[in-house]
Each structure stands twice: as structure tokens, then as C-alpha cells.
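sorry for the late reply, my laptop died twice this morning and i had to redo everyting from scratch. anyway the thing you sent over, i finally got around to it. pasting the sequence first so we're on the same page, its 317 residues, then the predicted structure underneath. double check i copied it right bc i was rushing
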Amino acid sequence: MNSAQLDTESTNTKDTLDNIVEEIGRVILGKEEAIRLSLACLLARGHLLIEDLPGVGKTILSHVIASTLGLEYQRIQFTSDLLPADILGISIYDRDSSTFSFHPGPIFSQLILADEVNRATPRAQSALLEAMEESQITVEGKTRVLPKPFFVIATQNPSSQVGTFPLPESQLDRFTMRIKLGYPDNEAERELLKGSDRRQLIKHITPTIDSEQLIAMQVQAESIHVAEALLDYLQDLLDYSRSSADYINGLSPRAGLAVLRCARAWALMHGHPQVLPEDIQQVLPSIISHRLNRVQDNGQAIQEDDATHLIKQVPIP
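ok and here's the structure:
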């Protein structure tokens, strides 16, 4: 494929993704950046954690993404009595055939909403680990492959709220991005108050693309060119986080790969033929916010604008 064909394909993909953002934005008002970050996470084959107060639209965002992209959708309500088998599935004895048959759980879908994931026990939370890392699960000694594409959106309430179990670092690291929706601005909230119920709007959504087209876009994102100088910049960011006394622990290789994949997806969404430094800077905050802890003078860890601090300290080559 020559450069002219590549440019045409890139432009067509950008236009399609812009239409998707616009369609989702008809339901999720005034949150274009959060919508674009969510789509970038999906295009990068990652998983998304949305942490915010109840009632700001976390669940509706996941549902409208699934409807707009034509994905099979399952919602799992995480509660303190949830068991791993409720997520993965279970083998049930069939008296007629005198054998056990496996009944798949809700994890066998293309887009999973793990709603209020931090209200379940660590045992139930850990049922997602293999699925998120390898797109497969192992139940009763047998490995079963999950559908493609496979995308987990988990929501969690702030840890200060009653009845929550903090996610361990190993599970937090499986989430490519963590974002917040926040309150709508005045104009968006007025339209929300005067308009139709958001859930009713979802029922009338016609899918913009199908799962095969989405997979093709994921492949296209992986092919976005990354220059050596850009890799130098990314490595400088990683090295600073690891060597600086500003942070308790540095960014892992997995975090570096997440930044690269999401920067490629962000470049694809904005029609860039190759990854630019600003593509990295746009996705960096949502990727490191749950991975990087800064140290105060008194030795206490905080999470306060780590991305801005890191970007300021590391010059672009």
C-alpha cells in the first residue's frame, strides 16, 4: 500500500472515529475528552477503569460505547457476596448424559462492565486478572478463549465511601487507563435536565461499525509509525520516573507499553501518520494516575498532577 492509500485510509478512519465520538456525545454530554480516551483505550486493546462518584454517568458511558460499536455487552454488578463462578461460569452435572457441562458466565462477551468493582471481595476481583491480561480464562483446569474484541470497563467509587475493598496494585496495573468523568458543566447539565432520559436514547442507537471493523482499526493503530526519537522521549519519561527521588516507585515496562499503544491509538484518532510527542502527553495522565505515587517532604505518597510534573521535567528530544 503506497503513501497516498495510507493517507486516504487514515483520513477515512479518523472520520469514522469522529462520527463515533459525536454519536456517543449525544448521550454523554460535555465529555468529549473522556469519550476519546475511552476509545483510545479500546483501540489499544487495553482495559479502562472509571473512578468517580455515583451518578455521573459511568455505567451509561459503557453501555453507549457498546451500542455504538455494535459489541456484545454484559454488565456484572460487583457486590460483597459475588463469587468467581458468578463471573467466569460453572460446570453443572447433566443427569441425562451423566456428564458435566460448562455454562459460561457473563465474562464471555465483547464488552464487560464490571460495575462498582471495588465493592466485591479481593477473591472476586481477582477473577478478572487472567481475562484482562490474556483474553482467556482457566476454569477447572481447562483454558477457554474469550471473544474478540474483549474490553473491560470497570467502575469504582472513591475508596473513602463505605463498603469498598481497595483494588490491589497488581489488579490496578491491569487497567491501561484510569479516567474520571466529573460533574457536567452548566450548559451540558441544563441540556441533561431538559432532555430525554439517557437510557432511552441508548435504545435508539444504530451501531456505527461492527466488531470486525473495530478489530481492523485496532490493527491499523498498531501499524502507526513510531520514530526512534519518539522512543527516546518515552524512555526518558520512564527513566525519570524510576531514577527521580520525586516518586516512590517508577513506571513499569507494562506502563511504558501502555503509553506507546495508547499514543498510537490517539494518533490514529487524530489523523497523525506517526506518533507525535503531544500524542504521548495527551494519554499519559490517564495511564500513570493509578501507577505513579509522588513523595512529599514528610514521606507521604500523593497522587497530584503527576503527569504534568513528569512532562515538565523531561524535555522533548
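The first strand starts at residue 48 and ends at 51.
thats about all i looked at so far, will dig more tmrw
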